[in-house]
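User: Sequence in, structure out. Go.
Assistant: Echoing your sequence, followed by the structure tokens.
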Amino acid sequence: MAHAQDPPHEHSAPPSYSVTAENGSSAVVKVEENGMCGNAPVKNELKRCLLEKFEDVYEGIPKAGRNISVNKIYTKLLITGESDSANEHEVGQIESASRAQTTRNTGIDCNDIFEPRPEESKRIKTVLTKGIAGIGKTVSVQKFIVDWAKGKANEHVDFLFVLPFRELNLIKDELSLIGLLQKLHSGVEGIEHVKYNDSEVILIFDGLDESKLELNFKENKILSDVTELASLDILLTNIIKRSLLPHAFRWITSRPAAAGLIPSDCVHRVTEIQGFQDEEKEEYFKKRLCDQKLADAVLSHLKSSRSLYIMCYIPVFCWISATVLKDILRRVENVKIPTTLTQMYTEFVLLQTSIKNQKYRGDESDCLLSEPDRDIILKLGQLAYQHLEKNSLTFIEKDVKDCGIDVKDAALYSGVCTEILKVESVRDRKVYCFIHLSIQEFFAALYVHHLLEKNDIGLLTSFFKIKSEALTGQVSLVDLLKGAVEKAVNSEKGHLDLFLRFLFGLSQDSNRCLIENILPQTNNSESNKKITQYIKSLKRRNISPERYLNLIHCLVELGVNGPSFVSEIQMQAGSGSTKPLSPYQCSELAYVLRMSEEDLDEFDLRKYNIPENGLMRLLPVMKNSRKTLTLRHINLGRFGVDLLCKMLCSDHCKLQTLDLSNNDLGDSAVKLLCPALSCQDCKLQTLRLSGCQVTQAGCAALVSAVCSKPSHLRELDLSYNHPEDAGVERLFTEMQSRGCKLK
């Protein structure tokens, strides 16, 4: 509640209002009397309302006793260009980021999001901030809002309006811009009287990835009148294009896959949220567990399982891990500690169920799940599966009830549900979502296995496109996994990658024994062999290297690749054998290198016998080479050069030196490489093409590329080629005339 203090005496300091948050803390909001005339009361009321709504954040589920002031959470934003990471599942993006985090140090405080850097001449009016689910986009927005409302930052800003897409999705009527602001800030009177053209205004659009609007920037009519009625889609495209309130600042947040909905010419700056680095992971567990010895034990275990430790890049996964491992490590009996994602998430669900049983039934036993437990878990699975199929992360109360979940039954809904489903009141309606996308994917995979046990051919064949005519009345585990693999590898953006990992993980007998009254134990060893052989046989070029890499993760979850897997692959790959690695072995090598803690500043493929058709499988690793990539004498051709071009033009690629010597590239392949050298995102400083069969024509193309303005290239090695005298002369002439710094 907000309470006005006593009226001030003459010449006293401006009055203030005390706002009490849900956690009992209070904040003082300075009230402006002068400077804005009639706008001041609206601004002060707006600040009070925003503080009441945004000052607290929650770990896990709201109202569970874990609310904390947003100002105790600080997340940096990193300046980036357009990213190509949207083609990779967010877990894959975590793995990439964990390799690159030490090189990314161009951070800005979220309160300075609109401040231009020294080299930027134009004002930053529109910012797009990307970040994977659970990384802290909304928390950064909240910090920005709270600091403004308390007068700690951006004091020049007169009005700040928050337009979450989760709320915008519920608006169906035609509105004017003024009407929209009134609807979303109903507790503030006088919004319609504000002189917006004379005011500094910030509009924050949080959660673009949740938008259910078309956002037709090309065909929507142009608006310039803030009082003109229009559909929400038309209003938003005109706000973002700056036809409406052209002088206002705009901040849009989104998961990477949806960031492309905003045309690049509408955005002045792209930023990316950074997750926990190693030091922050350690600090989190120390604070969260309040026990140094226990925190050390948790960290030690997580570090021993590289895939789990990498996932701790996401704050919410740190919370899940701390919750599970704290419980397991304190047990007296010898309990198997999770080493895979499937095991960790299974233990998390079992733990939440156990907590619920202790609270409502006084049952402290760790026996099998009861029938009511089984029932609610499968209902959550149905909800997760149906909305994953629709690629939907949020759902309304009707969706929850349609799956048989009674949210009003406290004994049923508390515990497992309240720790897994978040609920928000949005404009007098409840909106639900799983606490993290990965939780939804786990429950969806669990439910699919349940459908397999029921032999629900209709649902399985419709989602996975399994050919029903090939079935003999029963969908086998191999049929299911093959159908799931085909659907996942054909996904352009990899949105089913983690779901597929869980699907494989729940096929492992040792994982099923934990939840055997949901998924009965069966001997799947023969099925596991068949699906492993099927994955090894995949050699299609239209499948991206990220999808192939994820299939190795799937086999790790399945238990096919045991503890000795890493050392075996390293020995096999680096043995010096004259027999080239198979494409599948190249994917295994990519997995090992990506999971390794070793520095990949320099990556020399001469250590491994890599054929060109295996080069694509190593692309996710080559992208993480920060200094030198050596591809000498590996029979590189046009296909390999094309892959390198895509890599060099990626904003995530920091490569400085590329050695392609002693490959018979010829002029055609060299010409193919040239556009990448002049690409704005290419950071290459040294290129070695010694002994690559380059002639005068290839030299001419190289000269044009390396002398172009965006090129960073400073050293070019063309020894042992055939440029002839004319080619050499042209090279030096062009360099001198263009002021090229090439050596």
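User: And one key feature?
Assistant: The longest helix spans residues 341-361.
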